[in-house]
Amino acid sequence: MKKNEYKVHVFTGIRPSGGLTIANVIGSVNTIVSLQKEKKIERPMVFVADLHAITDAKPEDTQKYVVDIIKDYFALGLDKDNCDVFIQSHLIEEISELNLYLSRLISISELLRVPTLKEKIKRNIDVSNASLLLAMYPVMMSCDILLQKAEYVPVGEDQSAHIEMARYLAKRFNSEHGEVFPMPKMLSLGEPVRIMSLIGEGKMSKSNPNGAILLDDPVDISLNKVKRAQSAFAGEMSESLDSLIKIGKFVSDESGQKKIDELVSKHMNGEGVMKDLKDVIMESLRKYLTDFQEKKSQMSDSEVLEIAEKGGMIAKKNAKETIQKVRDAVGLKYI
Length: 335
Hints:
The protein folds into 2 domains: 8-194 and 300-330, 3-Layer(aba) Sandwich (Rossmann fold); 209-296, Orthogonal Bundle (Tyrosyl-Transfer RNA Synthetase), CATH 1.10.240.10. Helix content is 54%, strand content 7%. Helix 4 (92-103) crosses helix 8, helix 4 runs parallel beside helix 14 and helix 12 (254-268) packs antiparallel against helix 13. The chain is elongated, with a radius of gyration of 22 Å. The longest helix is centred in the last third of the chain and has 30 residues, at 301-330. By secondary structure, it is α/β, with parallel strands linked by helices. A 5-stranded parallel sheet has the order 3-2-1-4-5, with helices on both faces.
């Protein structure tokens, strides 16, 4: 095998930051599941980004979600027999070492120009008080991708800067030390799907649970949120109603989607059909959440950890091989 050939076809990560919302599923999880079901990708590699999660949270607050988030992905349709799943911290030595080599190839000012990092800092903390770990987030993400020599990384347009960073660092390293890293490519998912809070307070988020449909909540609680969700006057469309319609169509079968389309058409023509529309959405949502929770309950922690251990062995082997080539390239003889 040539030193800069790809090892992984499609590579993606998930942060263990608490229970998923339906917006997480529509905007992220469903993409990798759909690509796999449609056989548009070869065996994907998915990792739980528990090291990324501590850039803005305490480890003890995120570790408890690691196994749970893997269960979520499997319950949502990821084929556990046709993917490799691992936990990021199992590769902490390789990630830390590559992070060291790549960090010397980028300046602090270049880091702070990464759009997603700027937004993250702007949203959570004053730049003068931001932790160094948070600032290094884009480099760590590049390490994940480059250690596995991944070919494609699925991202929305708002996250394309992460792949550009990995490509930039790979080019800088290859230019200085020889061809080690193949260039990762962005598997474009287009504009991110925006699902707004059901109570009209920005994007749907688990940090604002009153306006979010959480997959693990009792089903009746989620249905009541739909019943109380902001809508719009007959003949008008609002962000909240548009999001509710997107949720309804996502969780519905073909028949349910057709009913929703018909009711939305009546609504836009000035008819008062909002109760009927919400009833259709609630019925589909009930089936969707019940099915998800039943599938998730059938998985044990030990089963999930066994799968993650097998995937971790593959990821570890890839990472060790890559690190050895990196050491040889940079001329470190005494490790």
